[in-house]
Amino acid sequence: MGEYTHIVHGFEPVFDKHSRVLILGSLPSVKSREAGFYYGHPRNRFWAVLAALTGQPKPESTEEKRKFLLGAGIAVWDVIAECDIIGSSDASIKNVIPAELSVITAVCPNIAVFANGGTAARLYGKYQAEKTGLPITALPSTSPANAAWGLERLTAEWGRLMVGALSDGREQL
Question: In this structure, which of 51, 67, 123, 131 has its CB flanked by the most CB atoms within 10 Å?
Fold first, then answer.
């Protein structure tokens, strides 16, 4: 199955005072860590889903992705600051040290929180919900491991669950 590796999250959260939506993953995958930014696996549908929902072109570079998120009022981070994991397998995660989400919630106290996948939602419930006091909505994972959900179905479900989450006149999901 592979060896456990201790991973320290290496990315800063992406957010600003205009962020209205926070999308939390569990921990960046091996491919994302290699790419140096969130959702860096070429088959992850995260960027395609958000592009479809906002009507914007799919961003390619890290700078385009950061600008895309901030322009749409979307914050991105992960529930985990450190853990032991085998490869990119969420099922293998153990010895979790949660991220300090107050970095975002102090600036954006009324942010709508969404989890990209069941593991992120479960870990948020275990480590974060009581601290933030904010409810979370679980979205189906955009990971290529979630092969049962095609891009069209993912986009429709994300759109259905995120309707109205942005309310400041920016691109609407």
Answer: 123
State the pairing for strand pair 21-25/112-116.
Answer: parallel
> By the 8 A CB rule, do 95 and 79 touch?
no
Tens-digit pLDDT profile for residues 87-112: 988 889 999 999 999 999 999 999 99
Q: Which domains does the chain have, with CATH numbers?
A: 14-78+101-162 (3.40.470.10)
CB of 40 within 8 A of CB of 31? yes
Q: Tell me the three-class secondary structure of 83-113, residue by residue.
A: EEECCCCHHHCEEEEECCCHHHHCCCCCCEE
Amino acid at 54: T
Residues 6 or more apart from 152 whose CB is under 8 A from it?
none
Q: pTM here?
A: 0.93
